[in-house]
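Before any further analysis, we paired sequence with structure tokens, yielding the entry below:
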Amino acid sequence: MYKPISNFMGNNMESTQVLKTKKMEVKVSISGNDFNDTVGKLFQCMRKEVFQEIGKPVIQMDTEEVYFDDVQKTEKTEKFLFVFMPRKKDYFTITARINVIVKYIDLE
């Protein structure tokens, strides 16, 4: 059944602004097999950390700045049965600082 906003959580919420904005810096480190996939995982991890830290419904996240503090590329040569068909594989480890502006709902 529909309840009016004025009775929600015992507060009069009709004229209260509940959209809050917070600027955050998140430091994330991640590893992967491909540079593009690793960067994608980096932003997934960043979003997860923002959701955990805010702990309230997030409406919008805007990435303001991205700094790659450390990018390491490791090349390894793999061989079938240690002799045949050598191929090179790259592994990436990226540590980044991401500045984010988060808009969320705060009912408290």
Summary: The radius of gyration is 22 Å. The CA atoms of residues 31 and 73 lie 10 Å apart. The first helix runs from residue 35 to 54.
